[in-house]
Amino acid sequence: MEKLICFIFLLFPIVQSYLVGCYYDYNQPLVLPEQLPTGICTHVLLIGAIFVRNLELSVIEHPYNGFIALESMRDYRTRDGNKLKLIPSILGDDAEWKSALKDSDSQMTFISSLINFAKIQNLDGFDFDWEYPCGEYKSIYTSFIEKLRIAVDEVFHNEFLLTTAVGAGKNTIDNCYEIEKLSQVLDLIHLMTYDYHSIYDKQTGYSSPIYPKNVEVGDARYYNTEWSAAYLVEQGVPRNKILIGLEGLGHTFQLNNSNIHDFAAPVIGPGYGGGWMTFIEFCLLVRTAGSHWDDEAKVNYTYYKDQWTNVGDVRAAEEKALFIKANGYGGAFTFGLHLDDSADICQYGETFPIHRTIARYLQ
């Protein structure tokens, strides 16, 4: 395992001491590939273009051509001086994942498809985003990753990254991952430290708090970045393999009473945008409504009449970076480039302020 850990850093010949993974969804018109910043991300994770289907990888054709998206990411890698690692994120519904991993023969067929695809598309790795391999598939997923590790090392001579997205909730970690075993064969774990509270809650709550609030008791004290990351370490995951998640969006709620608008205020249900708000929408809203910093949880939130929202922003990114450095984690990942401000609409004096802030703090 020590050899594998050392190898991670050989793959990233960069000035930064920490890694910054950046998810990017091509399926939107606001942030085009040509606009993506260089010198910020250590690896880019193209998401939404490639799916598991019939024991192989399937590239989408509509509403855009996924092969064009892959080509644009290779161009991005070139524009970044070939320091950037291109690692597409593999999606798929539960039935397709289970079919691909159901037995040894299916796994080997799928692995062969992965390797051939990686060669043809000139990739630097794969990220697996199965949400989630629970129950009996918990151990099956581990077995698959172990076999894939052996296969890619033989073909790519230890120059190919394997990563996975991992849910941050205790029940998800316990029921869906053999997390210590996985950490021995994966290069990185993208810990999804967001969506701790969501539109399904009956009261306001933060999507991506770093720390718990004093008023939270019992299981509620698990719903924060500090607890999730420490729990992975407690389970045997090396700190330098854990990348902490940041998001460029958050949740909205409709307040039950517009005069009660603090943390844990009663809500009727989702608010603006069907319960979602992006970073740019948030920064435009706070120009009128103002923002409120919660120094316990290290997040911003705002409210306007009967609407309440908390969204990942630049100040929260600063705090996440400080948390990562203070605790010796491997770095950060963002969701994502397509949700940052590519035109300085928010007037921070720079484009992609969330990503540039993370990169500055983690250098």
UniProtKB/TrEMBL annotation:
Signal peptide region: 1-17
A Gene Ontology cellular-component term: extracellular region
Domain of life where this protein originates: Eukaryota
Record keyword rRNA-binding present: no
One MF term in the entry's GO annotations: chitinase activity
Gene Ontology biological-process entries: carbohydrate metabolic process; chitin catabolic process
Keywords for this protein: Glycosidase, Hydrolase, Signal
PROSITE patterns per record: GH18_1, GH18_2
InterPro entries, per the entry: Chitinase_II/V-like_cat (IPR011583), Chitinase_insertion_sf (IPR029070), GH (IPR017853), Glyco_hydro18_cat (IPR001223), Glyco_hydro_18_chit_AS (IPR001579), Glycosyl_Hydrlase_18 (IPR050314)
Residue ranges of domain GH18 in the record: 18-363
Keyword Ribosomal protein included in the entry's annotation: no
PANTHER family: CHITINASE, CHITINASE 12-RELATED
Similarity field: Belongs to the glycosyl hydrolase 18 family.
Protein name per the record: GH18 domain-containing protein
Taxonomic source organism: Adineta steineri
